[in-house]
Specification:
Blueprint: H1 2-24, H2 32-47, E1 50-64, E2 73-88, E3 94-98, E4 103-108, E5 112-127, H3 136-156, H4 159-180, E6 184-189
Parallel strand pairs: 4-6
Antiparallel strand pairs: 1-2, 2-5, 3-4
Helix pairs in contact: 1-2, 1-4
């Protein structure tokens, strides 16, 4: 997995290097279309900056009506197996190229976030009382609660810290690439984006 990550980085950066080099030797102005293409390539680079973690949790659920006695009680033991992906959300990113000063201004939120949670639930020892049983909507609620539980576990783990480390590594590689062809990378994290910035 580690080797695949570096192969993806190398391929993505090679594409960026070709783009930078082509425009560095060109006297033509960079159009908005070119800027959009470059932004998409940079987004592709950051898409490989993600980490995943596996979680296996046991959740005990208990509920009763009126009295905590067998006829009024329902219980469930739930095993949740989940894969959580974290990375950089690129949807709000913007790019501005200053060809005169050979500067690339990149506006994005660099905070790692949980991108997706894929999970499988297994019910063990599902017990229902004569006067208290699981309704379909309750089972759906249990699934939602399990997803929230996994999310909290992921946030409490080192998942986002690991993602931050890979993000920093990627930004440094991009900065080195820009410098190598005479450009400068300016990163503007968590900054408001004005209307004239590219979409």
């Amino acid at each position: 997995m580690k080797y695949l990550f570096y192969i993806l980085i190398a391929c993505s950066l090679a594409g960026l290097g070709f783009y930078f080099g082509k425009n560095y030797n060109s006297s033509n102005n960079i159009s908005k279309t070119d800027q959009s293409i470059l932004l998409e390539r940079i987004k592709d680079v950051f898409k490989v900056v993600y980490v995943e973690a596996q979680f296996n949790e046991i959740i005990n659920h208990k509920d009763y009506t009126w009295f905590d006695l067998s006829p009024f009680r329902k219980t469930a033991i739930i095993r949740v197996q989940a894969t959580v992906h974290a990375g950089i959300d690129m949807d709000s990113s913007r790019l501005e190229l200053d060809e005169l000063h050979k500067t690339l201004n990149f506006y994005l939120d660099t905070t790692p976030v949980i991108l997706s949670i894929e999970h499988k639930m297994d019910y063990f020892d599902l017990q229902q009382g004569s006067f208290n049983y699981f309704k379909p909507e309750e089972l759906s609620s249990l699934e939602e609660n399990a997803t929230s539980y996994i999310r909290q576990k992921a946030l409490q783990s080192d998942l986002l810290n690991r993602c931050s480390s890979k993000r920093n590594e990627m930004i440094q590689l991009m900065d080195d690439l820009a410098k190598g062809v005479g450009w400068k990378l300016n990163l503007h994290p968590n900054k408001k984006i004005s209307a004239h910035h590219l979409k």
